[in-house]
Amino acid sequence: MTVDGTTVGGRPVDATGRTVAxxxxxxxxxxxxxxxxxAVRMGLIRTVPVQAPAAVPEPxxxxxxxxxGRGRAREWRPVERAELDRLKAAPDFPDGLRARxxxxxxxxxxxxxxxxxxxxxxxARTGHLSPVRFYLNRYRAVIWLYVxxxxxxxxxxxxxxxxxxxxxxxxxxxxxxxxxxxNWRTRHLGLLLRGTDDPWARAAAIASLLxxxxxxxxxxxxxxxxxxxxxxxxxxxxxxxxxxxxxIADRLVRADDPDEILWHRVSLALALDxxxxxxxxxxxxxxxxxxxxxxxxxxxxxxxGADRPRDVADRPRGGAERPRGGAxxxxxxAVGRTRRPGLLARIRRSLPGSTAxxxxxxxxxxx
Length: 367
Description:
Blueprint (H helix, E strand, L loop, with lengths): L6 E2 L2 E2 L6 E2 L1 H7 L4 H9 L37 E2 H8 L6 H6 L2 E2 L1 H8 L3 H9 L7 E4 L5 E6 H10 L10 H9 L3 H15 L4 H9 L4 H7 L3 H9 L12 H11 L4 H21 L64 H8 L17
Antiparallel strand pairs: 1-2, 3-4, 5-7, 6-7
Helix pairs in contact: 5-6, 10-12, 10-14
């Protein structure tokens, strides 16, 4: 939607002054750009949902990015004036708001807890603290960032872990596992899901954590995969754009543990059921628009605002398997189509390693 029905360059404009553009809102709240973005994602600042045009590439975007989530116009969510007034009326404004979104690296976090850097890293590796952001330095080393307020709260809640010898279980786990990337992905997904109620966008957020082969095994319709790719959320802040650093970051974004992969595959299958019940992904010939009248029995509503998808049936993406039976399912599938019988067993059998006989995340610490 647009605010008061007015847009300029695809961005909403409110002539009445009831909403404020994000840049202006960040200035009034005395927050930096990334601080404001993090505050929105954490739910500290409520924004006005805006439906951006689907599959609109950025000006000058390479041809390979056109029609994909990477070439889509970035999210633009204004803030209501009343929300700004509420935040600025807080007794601790602006220091309190800035403190809640302040991020620190491992060294500074260790200083906040008055412990050594090595001890903090062990606690983070074993999932006691979850990073909220990451970036790669000039040496392509991954630097994890944590919310300073959460680090301080952890110290207040777990003083026994800050002094003396760490428990043997923590020391043993820290030597063989590292849950920082996994916990970041879980948190990142939660922040993405918090920001949208659209069922296809929520499914796309889950799909962004799976590699193309895993995605193709769960979503065997190439047009649905194409629609999910259009709605793929933008990369997190500080994400490298190319080169070896991009490859490292891509690996961090995608699930790599068998239990985690299973969880996201099942979650995606359930999210797709909800999305298909709301509207079908656009297929050639349907125009990608909502019909004016309710669908007849046996038909689905096409999703609104989506461009006609490119023919991905003849060009599988990212190593994904070719669709079975030609160009995929034709339009007109049943509303609320359920998953095929035995999907969970099929997903478990396809995972690396033997997981078919165990429960979801059985024997694992999900942080």
